[in-house]
Amino acid sequence: MKVIFIICIIIVIIVLLLSVLTTNKAYQYKHTVDPIKKPEYDDEEKEHHPSN
């Protein structure tokens, strides 16, 4: 019974360490955002566009 309990504790510690390492690596990742581009209208759409 003690052997099973020790094995379970070791597994829990390994899973906890892997979770912490993965979370730290995810927070260190630098995210980038693409700039928003204005929609381009062709001549037909410009005629029907409300801002004109």
From TrEMBL:
Lineage, top-rank taxon, reads Bacteria
Among the GO biological process terms of this entry, one is: cell division
- Keywords, comma-separated and alphabetical: Cell cycle, Cell division
Q: By what name is this protein known? A: FtsZ-interacting cell division protein ZipA
Q: Organism, per UniProt?
A: Metabacillus malikii
Q: What high-level taxonomic lineage is stated for the organism? A: Bacteria, Bacillati, Bacillota, Bacilli, Bacillales
